[in-house]
Design brief:
Number of domains: 1
CATH topology: Phosphorylase Kinase, domain 1
Radius of gyration: 13 Å
CATH class: Alpha Beta
Largest sheet: 5 strands, antiparallel
Strand order of the largest sheet: 1-2-3-5-4
Structural class: alpha+beta
Strand content: 15-25%
CATH superfamily: Phosphorylase Kinase, domain 1
Helix content: 25-40%
Length: 92
């Protein structure tokens, strides 16, 4: 398996447009197996590898469950997610 450590601004831009966010001013936090970006306004974007759709769905569901049960954890944003950009699941 090849894992690229090169940021993919096209995927970030497509995902942000689909979810209603402006990608202008995005800063990479970590570019590795997954890409983690910070948008202005403290929005964090996670771009997973292709083929990780089920894992992304599960992560969003777990984040929602944690929030619903008062567990202190990172919150998923109230947008329909994950979104698919260039075949990659993206969460916010």
């Amino acid at each position: 398996m090849k894992i690229s450590a090169v940021p993919d601004l096209a995927v970030l831009t497509e995902a942000c447009v689909l979810a209603g966010f402006d990608p202008a001013g995005a800063e990479p936090i970590r570019i590795a197996e997954n890409e983690i970006w910070r948008l202005p306004g403290e929005v964090i974007v996670r771009i997973a590898r292709a083929g990780q759709w089920k894992a992304a769905v599960r992560e969003v569901l777990v984040a929602l469950w944690l929030a619903d049960n008062g567990v202190s954890a990172v919150r998923s944003l109230p947008v329909e997610q994950p979104v698919e950009a260039a075949g990659r699941p993206v969460t916010f």
